[in-house]
Prior knowledge:
Blueprint: H1 2-10, H2 12-20, H3 22-29, H4 33-40, H5 44-65, H6 67-73, H7 77-85, H8 96-110, H9 118-128, E1 133-143, E2 146-156, E3 162-169
Antiparallel strand pairs: 1-2, 2-3
Helix pairs in contact: 1-2, 2-3, 2-5, 5-6, 5-8, 8-9
Amino acid sequence: MIRVLALLLQNQNLRDQLRSNVSAFITKQGLSDEEAKIIASLDCDQLDRQAEALLSKRRSQVAHIIPQTWSSLGRDAINQFQEYVEHAKWPETYHKHELDAQQFCKFLKQRRVQGYLKSEHNWLNFRIHNCWFRIHWVTDLVINNQRFRGIQVFGRNSSGVPVRRAIFLRRTYEDH
């Protein structure tokens, strides 16, 4: 039962199916009589509001974790995130927000969305994984709202806290 409710909160298409034909939805989900009664009694508008509140919180957390990418996406950020959540489950682990941001970055990268920042994705991956040192060459370092090519150096201090440094190249020519 909890699984079905979680799916309903995560998936607009399932909520639409429930709204359009309750009995078909119950049959398709293989619910028991008791579960069917509970599902049939749900207020679909209230379910939509709850789902939007959860999505808004999820979106806010991801935007906080990858602020440069979110900003770089501009007005398209919310639409891209909406499309992402329609294809992805919300991670159910201790680091769920970081993993959600990581999966969102992967989604943007795979779709080659303009605004995706590999440099921020690298930093997020380093923080999530238990690595001690990494070096990356990137073409999208954001420093003072400008993009540069450069080298990212990630490490952990003696306490295991992630630290980062960047060596960026000043622009001396225009890209064509």
